[in-house]
Amino acid sequence: MDIYYRKQRWKLYLFLFAAIIGIGSLLYTNRLVKLLAQEEKKKVELWAEATRQLADLSDITESYIPQRDIGFPLQVVEYNTTIPVIIADQEDNILYHRNMDSLKMINPDYRRRQLEQMKSEIEPIEIELGDGIVQYVYYRNSTLLVKLTYYPYIQLGVILLFILVAYLAFSASRRAEQNQVWVGLSKETAHQLGTPTSSLIGWVELLKEKHPDKKLVSELEKDAGRLEEITERFSKIGSKPVLKNANILEVLKESVAYLESRTSDQVSFTFDPDSKDHVVPINRSLFQWVVENLCKNSVDAMEGNGTIKISVSDQLKHVLIDFEDSGKGVPKNRHKTIFKPGYTTKMRGWGLGLSLAKRIIETYHKGKIFVLHSEAGKGTVIRIILQKSD
């Protein structure tokens, strides 16, 4: 039951769909920008031609100039109110400018920078005035065209920001809902187990009185006590557990001893601690639950035949606990998914063991649990990091 594989696949589809929309929007906007740039170039060319005509007309005696001949070039020149232009001679002396900041253009350095910038952006338009005199019209895209160029990027940024905020809000709401489900399920489980567990303990006490020397009664007493401890564990989920300093090596040995007596003889446990005793603030009952869940998952991964090695080492302010098995391994793209509720590779599994372990370690003990290393057919190493007592 790999619900997260399907979920990731749908996320990929949605991402691809959003990417297609975004790329399509950018391509379409860029096409519009190019068309508008071409239109602006035509306008500048027309403006340059009108300027040339005005220059030619200024050389003729005013009495020979019909009013209609000068009116149209003037109208074309005055019509340009958006495109910044500069007219310069062959020595780059600025003769005229339009739609520029008049106050700033008084500064020679600013005028020179603007001219150089226009030179680097767009090829100038030549105006031939005769007698070998050539002037150049330099221009840049209008403010409207520049805004249109950046608009799709700003639009996509706003959309992505909205999606991110919505996703974070949805994730927070989903986590809160999951927490409520965890708490409700745990409390109800503890309540349902409480009555038969108390009754079973009473029957065990009665059997002890009648059969005090029987080994069967002793083992039954252990399991009844274990059932009572499990009930207590469920009752602690959802409430803040009390952490007490404990030697982590003793807690691990106690957990392994219980598991060894209830696991197949084909599964061997090895314990490899360093030479130090590590005092760590933990909730003993909940931490042992984590150890049991990790070891049971390892047994399932090895199909009941293999080795589980538990190593403990010191790292400044932290204690590292590694659980290594000789099972079938975990694919790299599933290293995080295996700790999510509902993920399991078993036909009849609920997929809650490792997610519960993650919750206990990270939420209650403020530690870390993750897949340190895994190789197909050779096994997996899961690491727990806990803070040491001050």
Structural account:
The protein has two domains: 3-141, no CATH class; 242-387, Heat Shock Protein 90 (2-Layer Sandwich), CATH 3.30.565. The longest helix is centred in the middle third of the chain and has 68 residues, at 143-210. It has eight helices and eleven strands. It has 390 residues and is an alpha+beta fold.
Question: Roughly how much helix do the residues carry, as a percent range?
Answer: 55-70%
CATH C-level label of the largest domain: Alpha Beta
The spatial strand order of the largest sheet comes to 6-8-9-11-10
Alpha-carbon Rg, integer? 39 Å
Q: Based on Cα principal axes, name the global outline.
A: rod-shaped
Largest beta sheet, briefly? 5 strands, mixed
Distance between the termini: 43 Å
Along the chain, the helix and strand elements come as: HHEEHEEHHEHEEHEEHEE
Broad structural category: alpha+beta
- Can you say what the CATH homologous superfamily of the largest domain is? Histidine kinase-like ATPase, C-terminal domain
Number of domains: 2
By CATH, the architecture of the largest domain is named 2-Layer Sandwich
Oligomer class:
single chain
Number of distinct helices: 8
Number of strands: 11
pLDDT below 50 for ≥5 consecutive residues: which ranges?
A: 60-68
Mean pLDDT: 78
Fraction of residues in β-strands: 15-25%
